[in-house]
Amino acid sequence: MSRTNMFYWQADRPYTAKQIKDIFLDRKNDYDKDQISKAAALAFGVDDVNLKDPINFGSVNIVCPFTTNNGDQGVIRVHPGSVKNEYFYSEVEAMKLAAAAGIPVPNTILVDDTRNIFPFDYMVTSRVIGEVMQVAV
C-alpha cells in the first residue's frame, strides 16, 4: 500500500521533544481521573460517572470508557494537557463519512478544546460495543 496520498494522523505538524514524550510516553502516567470523570459527566449531563481505567489501545490520547448512573455508556478521549489536540473536529467529520458508508461509529456528544473548564482537550462519544480492530485483525 502506498502512503503517497494518505493522511497520516498527527504526523503533519512539528512537535518538540517534550510534546512527543508527553503524548507517546507519559500520557497515562500523569492524568487526573477526577477531572476526566467530571468532564465525562458534564458532557452527558449527569452528576457522576463510573470511569474505567484507560484502555491499552491507542497511542495518543487517554481513552476511558465510562457508565453513567442511569446506565448510558460512553467514552472520553483526553489529549495530554501540555499539547493542543487540533484533530478531534477532523475525527468527527471522518466518523460522519464512515457512518455514511455503513460503518458503526459512536455518536459525538461533545468536543471541547477551549480549556475553559478543564485543562485539556477532550472528546466524549457514545460507546459502540464491539471488538477492538487491533485484536480483530
Mean pLDDT, nearest integer?
84
End-to-end gap = 16 Å
Q: Total number of β-strand segments?
A: 5
Based on CA atoms alone, the radius of gyration comes out at 15 Å
Low-confidence stretches: none
What's the shape? globular
Main beta-sheet annotation: 5 strands, antiparallel
How would you explain this protein's 3D organization?
This protein is of the alpha+beta class. The protein is 28% helix and 19% strand. The protein is built from 4 helices and 5 strands. The mean pLDDT is 84.
Concise overview:
The protein has 137 residues and is α+β, with helices and mostly antiparallel strands. 28% of the residues lie in helices and 19% in strands.
Output the keywords.
137 residues; alpha+beta; five-stranded antiparallel sheet; globular
What is the fold's blueprint, element by element?
Layout: H1 17-25, H2 33-44, E1 49-51, E2 62-68, E3 73-78, H3 88-100, E4 108-112, E5 122-126, H4 133-136
Antiparallel strand pairs: 1-2, 2-3, 3-5, 4-5
